[in-house]
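Two proteins follow. First one:
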Amino acid sequence: MEEKQINNDVNNKPQFAIFDWIVSLPIIRIVKPLYEWKKAFWIYCFLGMLSTIANYVFTIALAETFHLYGTIANVLAWLLSTLISFVLFRYLFFDRTNNSFINELIKFASARIFTLGVEELSILLFVDILGFDLRIVKAVLIPVTAILNYFISKLFVFKNKKEKE
């Protein structure tokens, strides 16, 4: 029932008409049944991918431009990409609440601190200590972080009240 509610909410949001248009293009039309079947999932993934790309680009740019340690560049990039992700999800995906922007941002960022710790420890070990290339380590960490963020969000952040009881 929860997924049907999410899909109905997504179908009723005019800001997502662009996704419907994209999957109606001749070359992309082949994936339309898959898109329609799990529309909310694909839109969530697309928005998450935007913040993931921002995180990766910011990390590498900060490390290479300012010659920062990988861990420092990663924290700064995490701050920027978490803000981008929060804004995308708050204004484009999830229904608005009466909570303040700051309160929602704190909850959202708090849920991602664990995966930041996983990234930081991995970068410290593999890049700063063992000397692996930051671009490769960061690329390997992207799916790990995405999966962890998904489960943390599903289990702790966006859990329905009925599921908590």
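Second one, unrelated to the first:
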Amino acid sequence: MNTASRKESKAQSSFELLITLSFGIAILLPLVLIAFVQLSNASSSLTSAESQQAASKLSGVATFIGSEGPPAKQLVEIQVPQGVQYIDVGTQSNGVGHEVIFVIRSPTGLSYITSYTPTNVSGSLGGITSQGSYLINVSAQSNCPSNPLLPCVYMIPQT
């Protein structure tokens, strides 16, 4: 076998390997992208579920404290998941209302996780934006700080 045919054989082997690797990458790349999309969706679902749990906990405590009336109060611990932009209590402008609203970032934009309570609620939880455990003071007020004409259950972070 001469030198030219050996070089030709090595070049052919290298070319075949390159083609094989290209097909392998072409097949694996879409699978990797699909896995990343699924992981992102799972993370978003987990954030939504954790936010719903925290909102339900706050509205449940608010309902209980509201039924007791002033001067009832309770300290409650909530877990805030990653991705929470802010938390509104009462209405989206933090006035007196009937909802606890977690606004979270999702791949499609902002999502709103709400929990209803029959009691008038208001509060100042907008400063809670990072993941973690927070203590919240929940107290029945005869004159709500955000609207002194109405009684409400008021929520503020423990300082």
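SUMMARY FIELD: Residues 37-157 form one domain. The longest helix spans residues 3-68.
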